[in-house]
Amino acid sequence: MKSLKLSLLALSLTLWVVAVSQATPQQNGSQQGAGQQNQMDQTQANSKANQNMSGSVSSSGKNFVNDKDNKKYKVDNPDALKGHEGQHVQIIVHVDPDTGDLHIMQIEMPDQR
Length: 113
Description:
- There is one protein chain.
- The chain contains 1 helix and 5 strands; from the N terminus they run αβββββ.
- By secondary structure, the chain is α+β, with helices and mostly antiparallel strands.
- It has 2 domains: 1-49; 51-108, CATH 2.40.50.140.
- The protein has a 5-stranded antiparallel β-sheet with strand order 3-2-1-4-5.
């Protein structure tokens, strides 16, 4: 009888230890998953913040047409495009998520090959 009680106690204790050990990594995993999700969100925000584009500057220098999707963007700092009116350029920009306007960070002439 004593061995049956000890066996049941040992089995109960073993099941409890297994259950606790399985529950703990899931909680830690969900916390790590949330941290990884925050890092991905931040990375996506950064990638949306600064983008490389190539396209044409309007003749007024106030708009930019992206080659990739032919989307026309308003430029919030048109002085950065002075001297490039009507030209095809490569730019690094910040896209305002609320208005969709571009802020020119850097401008380069594409390679002429």
